[in-house]
Sequence to fold (962 residues):
Amino acid sequence: MFASIAGVVLATLTPSTAAVAQVTAPASPSVAFHYGSTPPVDMLQAFDIAVVEPDSGFDPRRANTPHTAWFAYVSVGEVLPARPYFKDIPKAWLTGSNDAWNARVVDQAADGWPAFYVDKVITPLWERGYRGFFLDTLDSYQLVAKTDADRARQEAGMVRVIRAIKARYPDAKLLFNRGFEILPQVHALAHGVVFESLFRGWNQSQSRYTEVSQQDRDWLLNQARIIRDQYRLPVISIDYCPPRDRRCARETARRIRALGITPYVTDSGLQTVGVGPLEVLPRRVLIVQETEPGVVIDNTEGVRFVSMPINYLGYRVDFAETRDPLPDIGPDRYAGVVVWSNGSFTQQPGRLYAWIEKRIGQGVPVVFMNGFGAPVTGALARTLGLKTVKGRTSGPVQILSKDPMMGFEMPVAPDRSDAVPVQVQDGAADTRSLMRMRSGTLTFDAAAITPWGGYVTGPYAVRQNTANAQDRWVVQPLAFLREALRLPQMPVPDTTTESGRRLLTIHIDGDGFASRAEIPGGGYSGDVLLREIFDKYRLPMTMSVIEGEVGKSGMYPKLTPELEPIARKIFAQPYVEVASHTYSHPFQWARTVPGHEHDARIQEGDEDFHLAIPGYKMDLNREIGGSIDYINKVLAPADKPVKMLLWPGDCQAPPEALKLTDRAGVLNMNGGDTLITRSNPTWTAIAPLGIHKADNTFQVFATNQNENVYTNLWHGPYYGFERVIETYELTEKPYRFKAVNIYYHSYSGTKVASLKALRKVYDYVVSQPLLPMHSTDYVLKVLDWQGMAVARDLGDGASAAGGAGGAVGADGISDAPASGPWVVRGDGNLRNLRWTGAGVPDVATARGVTGSSPAPGGGVYVHLDGGDARFSVVPAASRAVPELPEANGLVRDWRRDGNTTRFAFSGYYKPFFRLANAGQCSVTVDGKPVAGVRERNTLRIDIPAVNDPIHVQQQIEVRCAG
Fold:
């Protein structure tokens, strides 16, 4: 079909138009348009430019998206009455109406209009951080200007407006929507030109999607030729398809791109994430659950069980409660929904199932775990396409068939009391039973994959044992969720690794800093730890103190003259970063917020949930901002302020506390309770990366737990922390779920056995191929992970199988090959992807990729140099250029010029890097030749420590023969 379209164009346009698809155009940025109330920054950052509705409340100054420019939508020719500046426009300037959009047409020839527009429209947006503007309705004057003279006056007025914008803000970038008539006068002021509906349009008055006529398309293509050939400007076409019809969007985008025009195909209201030169994959999964009164979200099954495997598969988790209004989500932003039920839902179940029906109708995969939350009969059975079956359970349960994913951490223990009398439709497309059972006269499917997703009834998701906390997965969660949610193969952002080495972080909670050591020589715990651990290993670490233990306003003011100098000495060490462990160490965070929904108002008994500091009443501002100010003013070096707040107690920080850490400009971490050991070898004991809470807050969990839980809450054995090595090993194989984290309290410096355990743990980690870094580095990686964009380049369409009809691949995303090209965007802190398909990244043609290395469980880690990568996957044997399979340090700004590769390198601890395919290469560090160690076709370069062991960047140059 592409050939026939091109043929029609050539036959109906002037000869020069034949070059429209062959002309070498200026570099054209990818552009997205989103006018919804909450622009999805995480996905839109995949594009070079994102145009948003400024009245949505979006603040570009808070978007940490270094590779995306945010443009504000502004209307020039029309104004909506809802705009804040509408009331200030003189009525005489409103000369007509656009009834289809309920807008008023503005007289562009009015003498004061250019100055008014700059002052009232552009300047407020410039002050809010916008540096680009999408100028819409540049042809609306044609609704009121009926003569050539009138049209000339209106066009001259628009020219004055555009020149006024650039005169006030010379650096402003302007995208024009059409404006073909004035381009001869202002093309030099334009950043690009947009038009709508090259192939697919929207009829506002009739509320329907339309096919564009060949005649209209030919006219637009002629305009595109002029813009590209004469003005050398990028051309972008916005086309429209129904939001659920991704196939329409993909194929329309390919057809546009095949003509040398940048596409963006979206819905009629520009409310969803559309398809441009690339398609952004949704990386969110919504967990819906019903939390019982008095249970905080941290303790729910959605957090404890489901979130970790979803995170490992590459997806951020959001939460919804059945009692609250359910979000209006679609397949553009969400990869799926997981519904976890503990019995029957009691909070508006009818509303919930109507919501689920709508999600299924939109094509959002839905998964039920631990049951359906209601009897599967009538309307619910019809919605889910399940057969209700009759029969009576009696006697033992027989397993008739069982998929290998069932019986994962424990054998299936058939339980007839929870039998749900449903079966899937045998032989139906995208349907298969995972476990068919029979009891008495009832035959039922306890788990299945279905066309809309899948389900596992209780107790075959997780067998819970509240008596001894020995919960076990019955279904293999990675396999089930991957298949039921129809998750496509993609490069997965991964927080465990960088440059081929598993990460290592160390952080210390301040508890016990005032305790004296029960060892020969005595002293306070901080002094002992500095002498026996910190200064012997000199690994990057994060140290915290509790102001209420150390400061003069706390519990031990007489000890302050002894304790504060110890803290200052520790904080002054070059490998130490500074943290607060709050003022009074709250034990139960739910009680820190008066009026909290789960607790009565706090009146008396404050000492029951925090340190008993004389005269102190709980004050969150004092706990967080106050303790940070104290450390910065009294303990920390002037150039090393507090960077982190480490949550104490139950670590279940409420949103109010999380917001205060953000206001204080520090990161936060702790909680999560990862405690997998050989005596508790279950993935249910591995926590997710963190948890989204109310008010758009996020708490980062510690990678694993501290010595308190390995020592039976510090009751002994005091050497128990050495068992954390089991946790490290069980989160490395069969899959690397976690980085390595040495996490303990100051009181570990008080006993001979606990110090011995610490030395054993430290000796273990320094013997492993780990990359040490500070805890803030890890937290920033997790935050970057949350919003990282992963997109697939759809190609120019010239080779798409099946012409315009195309074909949807087995992964359900598109007919583009899984090998890419892939585009990954973030803020630059997370520099690791996990690819589980065949092949390796093609470093020779990639942008932002430095190499790859094997990943536990199969596939490879893809090493990045920052937050902007593009690569394809090729067979391993095809690689031939120098790359980095391993580095004990941070690699940035990787670039190749012919036979020379340059990059910036830095490391905290014994830095080195290893080059592959470097048998004929030489290396300089900061301009000085280094020999390195050669082995076959690899070259290892050890970097001398600089200012031991501060993170210092050095410039590396690799020159290769041939």
